[in-house]
Amino acid sequence: MRKIVLFILIGMLVLPGCSNQNVKENYPIYEGTVVFKTDKNDKYKFLVLQNISKEDLENGNLQDFIELAQDQEASYYLVDKENYGAIEVGQRVKITAHFNQLESLPPIRTVVSIQTINE
């Protein structure tokens, strides 16, 4: 009986480690327009709104953008310094983000990858 229990325990420990499956994460993808950029304390982030008119983008300020964010998919995205410098306010972007996010309004997400969308 002891041998059977020992065999089961060893099997439970060894077999999962022998799995050769590469699990690909299906991170969520978001699209929108960069409406604000900030780089405080070496943390680079964009505020991205799903929908915004050219007039609102040109005439708005951060508080206006945050109010617009309450009614649509919007988020801050933490990016690296290279992407921060390459993307400008007003550009449409497609962002792949990590699953986790900091809870705030709007939420703060970490970017896995970012692409500009040419319209």
Furnish the topology, listing elements before pairings:
Blueprint: H1 2-17, E1 29-40, E2 43-49, H2 54-59, H3 62-69, E3 74-79, H4 81-86, E4 92-102, E5 108-117
Parallel strand pairs: 3-5
Antiparallel strand pairs: 1-2, 1-4, 2-3, 4-5
Structural write-up:
This protein is an alpha+beta fold and 119 residues long. The protein has one domain: OB fold (Dihydrolipoamide Acetyltransferase, E2P) (Beta Barrel). The longest helix has 16 residues. It is elongated and about 80 Å long. The termini are far apart.
Quick description:
By secondary structure, the chain is an alpha+beta fold.
The percent range for strand residues is 35-45%
Number of strands: 5
Order of adjacent strands in the largest pleated sheet: 1-2-3-5-4
Low-confidence stretches: none
Q: Any key phrases for this structure?
A:
OB fold (Dihydrolipoamide Acetyltransferase, E2P); single chain; alpha+beta; five-stranded mixed beta barrel; 119 residues
